[in-house]
Amino acid sequence: MLRTIYTEDHEAFRDTLRSFIEAEVVPHYEEWYANGIVPKEFYRKLGELGVFGIEVPEEFGGAGEHTFKYEAIIAEECARAGVSFGGSGVHVNLCLPYLMKYCTQEQKERWLPGFVEGTNMFAIAMTEPGTGSDLAGMKSTAKLSEDGTHYVLNGSKTFITGGVNADRVIVCARTSPATAEDRRYGISLFVVDTTLPGYEVGRKLDKLGLKVSDTAELSFTDVKVPTSDLLGEENQGFGYLGQNLPQERLSIANGAYAQAKAAIAFAQDYTQQRNIFGKPVASFQNTKFELAACKAKLDAMESSVDRGIELHDAGKLTAADAASLKLFCTEAASDIIDRCLQLHGGYGYMNEYPIARLYADNRVNRIYGGTSEVMKTIIAKDMGL
Fold it and tell me: Catalytic annotation on 248?
């Protein structure tokens, strides 16, 4: 279908990014995949390209744009090439909104220039062992020192994307006990320097997919976090976390759409090149019907994602909208990618083919950012059920 949300400026950015990926990512990607991590110096190249500063105000070195469209293009172009920028998506899509909304002017001056340059990489640490989606049940604590100069942080986190390469991590911890009326009360956010004594990066987790994205366990033992690194108001962190969820879920939905689009392109190319019984696999009616069905579903995904992006840019994307978008796009992408892998036959099961990696990478979309079951709960509540 004809897309109408992108301008000439967006398409120029797409062309520049595509050339960058071909020159700076594709030649090295197999090595990154084998190592399970993107070299940290690569993030400086992304900084030089301007990728990290698109939505950062000009006074801190950014472009001052107010749109999600460039991030959507990045997801599409990475999926198209069968590559990933590792954990840097969290740096922009998850962390930047918190920094822009809750940082003081002094904090922005300290952190945002390095954020834009790729020399001050961010991650966010919410999930703890045993808590999963129940963030109100977190056990990590941050106790204010007697002299009021710092907090003493203790606890652990898991499934932290970008946790190995991060220079700063937005850590959620309890600064006060929950109340009988509100178990979500008492959580605060801290922008923690990863070089502080007592801060430890544990295992780099071995995942089913997203092999190039560094996902780690973190632990904190009497880490002294300066009070100047508290993000927003004390005890109000849970409310902050909820406000960024629509963008996070839009990002996941858009990523799923990008993966599905890439899967169809991979399958179409493969079936046109692969011969069986003396003719291309693409010439069989079943192949045509499968790809046509996938394309029709992709068109519906594209329309939904584009509408979601426009609503988000206008500040009108609700939590229920984002949940519905994430649920539909992640479930649809799973079906499309599975069918496209099937068209590859045995080769689709080999990791040397991008469709196999895509199949593994896609699976987590229905888990992180809120499981499909959580999305259904949100939608049902919005329906008054």
Answer: yes
- And the tokens for 92? 């922009």
User: Which residue, among 336, 323, 358, 356, has the nearest Cα to 253 in the 3D structure?
Assistant: 323
CA 290 to chain centre: 29
Burial class of residue 340, CB neighbours in 10 A (0-12, 13-18, 19+) = buried
pLDDT 10s digits, 162-185: 999 999 999 999 999 988 888 889
Per-residue pLDDT reduced to its tens digit, 205-214: 999 999 999 9
CA Rg, the chain, in Å?
Answer: 21
Q: What angle do CA 239, 241, 247 make, to 5 degrees?
A: 125
Distance CA 57, CA 292 (A): 43
Tokens of 16: 């520049």
For residues 317 and 311, the answer to whether their CB atoms sit within 8 Å is yes
pLDDT, residue 136, reads: 75
Please report how the helices 319-343 and 245-273 are oriented relative to each other, as an axis angle in degrees rounded to 10: 20
Is the whole model's pTM more than 0.85, yes or no? yes
How far are the Cα atoms of 5, 39, 112 from residue 104, in angstroms, in the given order?
Answer: 33, 31, 11
User: How many CB atoms are located within 10 Å of the residue 246 CB?
Assistant: 23
Angle between helices 69-81 and 245-273 in degrees, nearest 10: 30
The structure tokens listed for 162 are 């970008």
Which residues are paired to 256 by β-bridges?
none
Compute CA 268 distance to the chain's CA centroid, rounded to the nearest angstrom. 27
Out of 248, 302, 352, 373, the active site residue is: 248
Alpha-carbon distance 255 to 147, whole Å?
A: 46
Measured in whole angstroms, the distance separating CA 206 from the mean position of its chain's CA atoms is 18
Give the helix ranges, DSSP H, for the chain. 8-20, 29-35, 40-49, 69-81, 88-90, 96-102, 105-117, 237-243, 245-273, 285-313, 319-343, 354-362, 372-382
Largest CA distance in the chain: 81
> Hey, how many other C-beta atoms are within 10 angstroms of the C-beta on 368?
16
DSSP-based three-state secondary structure for 292: helix
The three state secondary structure string of 121-188 is CEEEECCCCCCCCCHHHCCCEEEECCCCCEEEEEEEEEEEECCCCCCEEEEEEECCCCCCCCCCCCEE
C-alpha separations of 275 from 271, 288, 342 in Å: 8, 15, 15
Tokens for 247, please give them: 């963008």
